[in-house]
Design brief:
The protein is an all-alpha fold. The protein is built from nine helices and no strands. It has one domain (15-233). The protein has helices at residues 2-8, 15-40, 47-60, 63-92, 100-114, 123-147, 157-172, 190-217, 222-245. α2 (15-40) runs parallel beside α8, α3 (47-60) runs antiparallel to α4 (63-92) and α5 (100-114) packs antiparallel against α6 (123-147). The protein is globular and about 65 Å long.
Length: 247
C-alpha cells in the first residue's frame, strides 16, 4: 500500500499512475463541486456557465453579478497558475513532491472551506467561499493536466463527454473493406473510451457522495475530501523533508 500511494504522486510517471491518480481526483472534484452547490448554491467547476453568466449579466446591467462572475473566473485561473508555479518550483529543486505539493495545498484549502461554515450566512463570506472553491478546482485540474501532458482532465466534464462521443462515433463507424488497410480506416481507442467513461462515472458518484455528506454534515464534510489528498501527497513530502534534514 505504501509503495502504491508513493507512486501516485511520484515525479516518475506512468500511464497507470496517471490514470489512478485521475480516478481519485475526479471523485474528489465531483464531491467538492456538488458539496459546494449544497453550501453556496453554485457549481464551481463549470467555467463555461460562469463566463456565459458574466455575458448575460453585462447585457442586463447586473454589475454586482458581473463582478462575482469575474471573481470566480479569475480565482479558477489563479488556482491553475498556482498549481503550475508549485510544480515547476518543485521540479527546479528536484523534489520528489513536485506533484504532491499542490495536492497538499488543495487539502489545506479544503480544510479552510470546512472551517468556514459558521460564516456562510454572510454575503461576503459566501462570495469568498465561491472564489475559494473555484481556486481549488483550477488548482486540481492543472495538476492532472500537467502530469498527464494534457491527456486527462478531472473537473472539465464537458471535455470528457465530448471525447467520449468522439470515440463512440469512431467505434460505431462502418469501415468499407477497401479502407481497412488504408489511412482512411477509422479505429476507436477502446482503452481511452474506458478511461473517459470511468472518469465521468467517478465524477457522478463523487457528486452523489458529496451531496449526501454536505447535506448531512454541512461544510465540515470537506474534511473527508481533504483526508485522502493528505494521504496521497504525504509520502513524497516526508521524503523531501528527511532529505533536507540530512544534508
Amino acid at each position: 500500500m505504501k509503495y502504491y500511494l508513493r507512486n501516485l504522486t511520484a515525479k516518475e510517471r506512468s500511464e497507470a499512475t496517471d490514470r489512478h491518480l485521475a480516478f481519485y481526483l475526479t471523485f474528489v472534484a465531483g464531491a467538492a463541486n456538488a458539496g459546494g452547490f449544497m453550501a453556496v448554491h453554485q457549481y464551481t467547476s463549470h467555467m463555461s456557465g460562469i463566463v456565459s453568466a458574466i455575458a448575460d449579466n453585462i447585457v442586463l446591467g447586473n454589475i454586482a453579478l458581473v463582478v462575482a462572475g469575474l471573481s470566480a473566473l479569475f480565482s479558477f485561473v489563479a488556482g491553475a497558475a498556482t498549481s503550475a508555479i508549485l510544480i515547476n518550483w518543485g521540479r527546479r529543486l528536484d523534489l520528489q513532491a513536485e506533484y504532491a505539493l499542490p495536492l497538499l495545498f488543495e487539502a489545506f484549502l479544503l480544510v479552510c472551506f470546512a472551517i468556514s461554515g459558521n460564516h456562510l450566512s454572510e454575503t461576503v463570506a459566501v462570495s469568498a467561499t465561491i472564489m475559494l472553491l473555484c481556486f481549488i478546482m483550477g488548482l486540481q485540474n492543472a495538476i492532472i493536466t500537467k502530469l498527464s501532458g494534457a491527456r486527462i482532465r478531472t473537473t472539465h466534464v464537458t471535455g470528457l463527454v465530448t471525447d467520449t462521443g468522439i470515440e463512440i462515433g469512431k467505434l460505431v463507424y462502418w469501415n468499407r473493406d477497401s479502407a481497412r488497410s488504408s489511412r482512411l480506416h477509422v479505429r476507436a481507442d477502446r482503452r481511452k473510451l474506458r478511461l473517459l467513461t470511468s472518469l465521468i462515472g467517478l465524477f457522478l458518484v463523487g457528486g452523489i457522495c458529496g451531496a449526501l455528506l454536505f447535506n448531512k454534515l454541512g461544510v465540515s464534510a470537506a474534511l473527508f475530501l481533504a483526508a485522502p489528498l493528505v494521504l496521497i501527497a504525504a509520502l513524497p513530502v516526508i521524503e523531501d523533508v528527511r532529505s533536507a534534514l540530512n544534508r
